[in-house]
Write a structure and sequence with these properties.
The structure is a single chain. The chain has about 260 residues and is of the alpha/beta class. Helices cover about 50% and strands about 10% of the residues. It is built from nine helices and four strands, in the order ααβααβαβααααβ. A four-stranded parallel β-sheet has the order 2-1-3-4, sandwiched between helices. The longest helix has 28 residues. The radius of gyration is 22 Å and the shape is globular.
């Protein structure tokens, strides 16, 4: 009796695994895209970006932080929206898609992963404007390294490689979008157009002072991510263009980055 029960459990487990492998293979054959972070998936769904690029279409993906996102003005206005409008006016006969993958408060680690996850959508050009948030506490190399080592983060990275799991997660995100279509996803914490610059205070844990060991570690971390973007773009024959960040002391100044 016990032997029959064990055989039944083994058969059920084997059958389930076989079915999942079959479904995973079917997703590969059907070109179901691999997964990404919820934010990137949501952007892809909202922009109706298909894995199969139509013939003659030119795709430009733009990556960055709050400046690229259009903080305080999005979705009505952003640098990416103006670029899209300019190209459509300058090249009216071309099928050009400009997709904004910028997100508030993110650093080079998130942006690098976002680029890697969207390469499967075959961009013809990738534009990057980043660097303001390099020294923000949530984006520092020690915080990012700790986060990458967490089990939940590793599990998410593994599940994104499965096209079957990614398809299920993507459908869940799509349902959530439809359910909360009128809700704002990313908003500025301060609605004012101009804010007073905050003074630097020696010893503040939120400030990374130039020349300190933590400063140098974060500069190296930033450089490594940039180099990863360049290598990945070259491997997929995707040109990458980097815009040099300006130093800003008013308006929507990225706090503690100077």
């Amino acid at each position: 009796m016990i032997k029959k029960g064990l055989l039944y459990i083994f058969f059920s487990f084997f059958s389930t695994c076989a079915l999942l492998l079959l479904l995973e293979g079917a997703c590969w054959v059907l070109d179901v895209p691999q997964g990404a972070s919820d934010f990137i998936e949501r952007t892809i769904i909202q922009q109706k970006l298909d894995l199969r690029k139509p013939a003659g279409q030119y795709r430009i993906f733009v990556f960055g932080e709050s400046t690229v996102h259009g903080a305080g003005y999005a979705p009505v206005s952003s640098p990416v929206k103006w670029l899209d409008a300019y190209l459509k006016d300058f090249l009216p006969g071309r099928d050009i898609r400009v997709i904004n993958f910028g997100r508030l408060g993110e650093g080079s680690a998130f942006i690098t992963q976002a680029f890697l996850d969207t390469l499967q959508y075959k961009p013809d050009l990738a534009i990057f404007y980043l660097g303001h948030n390099t020294f923000a506490p949530v984006n520092r190399v020690d915080v990012e390294t700790k986060k990458a080592a967490e089990f939940s983060h590793r599990l998410k990275a593994w599940s994104c490689k499965s096209r079957l799991i990614s398809a299920v997660v993507r459908e869940a995100i799509n349902l959530k979008i439809n359910r909360h279509a009128k809700e704002i996803q990313d908003v500025m914490g301060d609605p004012r157009i101009e804010t007073n610059p905050q003074p630097f205070q020696q010893g503040s844990p939120r400030i990374t002072f130039p020349g300190s060991p933590l400063y140098l570690e974060n500069v190296l971390f930033f450089k490594e991510n940039i180099e990863k973007i360049i290598r990945s773009g070259a491997k997929k024959h995707v040109p990458v263009l980097f815009m040099k960040p300006v130093c800003n002391l008013k308006d929507y100044s990225p706090n503690f980055s100077a």
